[in-house]
Design brief:
Largest sheet: 5 strands, antiparallel
Structural class: alpha+beta
Number of domains: 1
Strand content: 35-45%
CATH class: Mainly Beta
């Protein structure tokens, strides 16, 4: 009789031990804040010598990225590029990349590519210059 009670107690302990409730682990899901339509980059920017200015664009839809830029003088030039995420990383590493749009090194320009959905980067590039550059920019998403 005692042996039956001991066996039943051990069986109960085993059932409880094996069937413990699982610990709930809160899964952290990164949230993405999508870029809204409207002004994206406006105003006068000062870009350091051998540097660049970048604006990240996260889209869950197609959108037109339009805008203009100009330097104070026709003797001062920058390059504007629109790149997807992988090509932006390649561009930063000075590896082979493929831009969605690039202006070349010019004192002023206009772009209007349609992009998305995805992550994109609007870059104003002054890496080829040894002096700081002032740029008036007016870019928006439509």
């Amino acid at each position: 009789m005692i042996a039956i009670v001991v066996v039943m107690a051990l069986a109960a302990i085993q059932v409880i031990r094996v069937n413990r409730p699982e610990e709930k682990i809160d899964e952290v899901v990164p949230t993405v804040t999508y870029t809204d339509n409207g002004p994206l980059l406006t105003g006068n920017l000062s870009i350091e010598s051998n540097g660049f200015h970048v604006s990240r664009i996260d889209l869950n839809r197609k959108a037109k990225l339009g805008g203009t830029f100009n330097t104070p003088s026709s003797k001062e030039s920058v390059r504007v590029l629109v790149l997807d995420e992988a090509n932006f990383e390649n561009w930063k590493a000075e590896a082979e990349y493929r831009a969605i749009v690039t202006t070349g090194k010019v004192p002023w320009g206009r772009i209007s590519p349609v992009v998305g959905p995805g992550t994109f980067f609007l870059v104003i590039d002054n890496r080829a210059s040894n002096k700081d550059q002032s740029v008036e920019a007016n870019f928006s998403l439509d």
